[in-house]
């Protein structure tokens, strides 16, 4: 679980951090983590199982990153979209399809454990979905708060 979290953070963290800047990135990550933990708590009220919320926060970064992929210049390309290219809309086909697949994978992993022994710990799939939903919802407002490129300030 930790390895996959690191992989997703490595894949989506830089995309969001470059777009939002460090302070907004950190605030976004924390809010998504709190939303993830709150979602897990709402579905598991009274449970004594601990939840950290980091993977839910990373799920929020994934949601923002998916919306921002159309704004990123591939490392091998000489040019790409401008830094102020718009995010993919929430209701775009790509966002809906990815969200449905992400939700299905999390529900299946959470309910079946995907072959992991029961004593290995249960995946907090509700936290993943809560963080992801918060990331989808807040990525637009956070994008509006980000520092604007110099060309827009003139």
Task: Give an overview in words.
The protein is 66% helix and 0% strand. The model has no long low-confidence stretch (mean pLDDT 84). It is built from 6 helices and no strands.
Radius of gyration: 16 Å
Q: Which segments are poorly predicted (pLDDT under 50) over 5 or more consecutive residues?
A: none
Provide the helix percentage.
Answer: 55-70%
Structural class: mainly alpha
Please give the largest β-sheet: none
Shape: globular
Order of helices and strands: HHHHHH
**Distance between the first and last residues' Cα:** 46 Å
Number of helices: 6
Content of β-strand: under 5%
Average pLDDT confidence is 84
Q: What would you call the quaternary organization? A: single chain
Query: How many individual β-strands?
Result: 0
């Amino acid at each position: 679980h930790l390895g996959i979290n690191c992989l997703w953070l490595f894949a989506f963290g830089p995309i969001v951090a470059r777009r939002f800047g460090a302070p907004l990135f950190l605030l976004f990550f924390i809010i998504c983590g709190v939303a993830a933990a709150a979602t897990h708590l709402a579905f598991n009220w009274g449970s004594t199982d601990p939840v950290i919320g980091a993977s839910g926060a990373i799920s929020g970064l994934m949601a923002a990153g998916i919306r921002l992929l159309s704004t990123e210049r591939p490392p091998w390309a000489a040019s790409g979209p401008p830094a102020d290219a718009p995010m993919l809309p929430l209701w775009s086909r790509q966002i809906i399809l990815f969200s449905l697949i992400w939700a299905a994978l999390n529900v299946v992993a959470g309910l079946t454990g995907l072959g992991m022994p029961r004593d290995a710990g249960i995946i907090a799939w509700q936290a993943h979905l809560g963080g992801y939903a918060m990331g989808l919802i807040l990525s637009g407002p956070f994008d509006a708060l980000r520092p604007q490129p110099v060309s827009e300030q003139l």
